[in-house]
């Protein structure tokens, strides 16, 4: 039998009897994927009920429901689901990371989608001691998790970002639309996140190239060097766990004045090469300029220099820095901050625009 679709194409339709429908319903144990999205579900039911019904499930989509917590047998960990690889919990009501920790021992879990929840913090459960129903003392939390999507939550602390380095297999992370990843809300630009996340290869859907990683890490080290006010190594390690490692890896020396260098030689050693590129609609067509400037040049001073270099009159300048991996240049807004404090070093490109 055929019916016509809305585009007037013939579509084959097969009528089946109740026996065939019942046969399909009796074979839930063969089901590999299930989607129960936007159905108002708030619980998976009694412990192990779903697992026993669909023991071979590989993908479970629970997007847009009312989950806020997991019901478990002992209140600690979700068990079973030994074949589950992807769990989608986007757009639910989860506000406690403790509920996510209950998923730590889903051995096959590779992707966990938690976008659009209410999470404020992330912490790798490294201090768990499997007991009770988890009888494998060698079990590793989130052992095979490769993709963790945390976009559009309320994460606002760098300790949560740093904690992601402890996930043993994590390679793909989304942090966009969180306060910690929004410079306008006091969060970090992309290069800081790239530098702090040492093992991640994809951030916010964009692959991190070897060049971007190197430039981000060097810029991050310079940023930290320009801002640290204490020589307390423990405090620096707490606030910037990868700083010492990256500083050593990239061979970045402390910028200390030396009495053996003076005059022009000393001045030249503190210069960085910056490319300035005009894009403002009222600025006219101007060729990019490459200038050597002191690393201590402030953003406010650089704006004044740009007005002079490009002969800009009665135009209020706004600066951006181009970063690999970012679709748009990132604003540079702290007039009193120096280029060194912002992690901007030689080879950087500054986009010169005008205030709207």
UniProtKB/TrEMBL annotation:
Record flagged with keyword Cytoplasm: yes
Predominant location category: cytoplasm
CDD domains assigned to the protein according to its UniProt record, in alphabetical order: Ubl_TBCE
UniProt entry keywords in alphabetical sequence: Cytoplasm, Leucine-rich repeat, Repeat
Compartment annotation: Cytoplasm
InterPro entries: Leu-rich_rpt, LRR_dom_sf, Ubiquitin-like_domsf, Ubl_TBCE
Keyword Repeat: yes
GO cellular component terms, A-Z: cytoplasm
Sequence intervals crossing the membrane: none
Protein name: Tubulin-folding cofactor E
Species assigned in the record: Zea mays (Maize)
């Amino acid at each position: 039998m055929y019916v016509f679709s809305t585009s007037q194409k013939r579509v084959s339709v097969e009528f089946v009897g109740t026996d065939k429908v019942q046969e399909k319903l009796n074979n839930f144990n063969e089901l590999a994927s299930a989607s129960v999205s936007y159905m108002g579900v708030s619980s998976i039911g009694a412990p192990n009920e779903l697992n026993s019904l669909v023991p071979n499930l590989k993908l479970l989509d629970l997007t847009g429901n009312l989950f806020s917590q997991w019901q478990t047998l002992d209140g600690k960990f979700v068990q079973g689901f030994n074949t589950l690889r992807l769990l989608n919990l986007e757009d639910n009501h989860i506000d406690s990371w403790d509920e996510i920790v209950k998923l730590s021992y889903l051995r096959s879990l590779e992707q966990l989608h938690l976008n659009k929840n209410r999470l404020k913090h992330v912490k790798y459960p490294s201090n768990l001691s499997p007991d009770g129903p988890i009888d494998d003392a060698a079990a590793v939390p989130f052992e095979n998790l490769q993709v963790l999507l945390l976009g559009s939550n309320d994460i606002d602390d760098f300790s949560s970002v740093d904690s992601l380095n402890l996930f043993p297999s994590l390679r793909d992370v989304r942090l966009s639309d969180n306060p910690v990843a929004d410079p306008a809300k006091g969060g970090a630009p992309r290069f800081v996140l790239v530098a702090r996340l040492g093992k991640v290869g994809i951030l916010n859907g964009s692959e991190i190239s070897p060049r971007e990683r190197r430039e981000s890490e060097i810029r991050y080290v310079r940023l930290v060097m320009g801002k640290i006010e204490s020589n307390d190594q423990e405090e620096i390690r707490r606030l910037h766990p990868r700083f010492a490692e990256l500083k050593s890896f990239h061979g970045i020396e402390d910028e200390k004045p030396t009495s053996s260098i003076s005059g022009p030689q000393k001045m030249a050693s503190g210069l960085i090469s910056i490319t300035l590129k005009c894009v403002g609609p009222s600025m006219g067509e101007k060729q990019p300029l490459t200038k050597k400037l002191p690393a201590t040049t402030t953003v406010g001073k650089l704006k004044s220099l740009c007005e002079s270099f490009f002969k800009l009159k009665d135009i209020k300048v706004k600066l951006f820095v181009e970063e690999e991996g970012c679709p748009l240049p990132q604003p540079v807004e702290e007039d009193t901050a120096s280029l060194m404090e912002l992690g901007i070093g030689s080879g950087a490109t500054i986009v010169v625009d005008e205030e709207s």
